Amino acid sequence: MNSSSVRDIARHYLRDLIYGANDGIITTFAVVAGVTGASLSTTVILILGVSNLLADGFSMAASNFLSMRSDADVREDEGEARDMDESPFKNGLATFLAFVACGSVPLVAYVIPMSGDVRFPLTVVLTLLTLFAVGASRSFVTRRSWLRNGLEMLAIGALAAVVAFVLGASVAGLTD
Question: The pTM is what?
Answer without folding.
Answer: 0.86
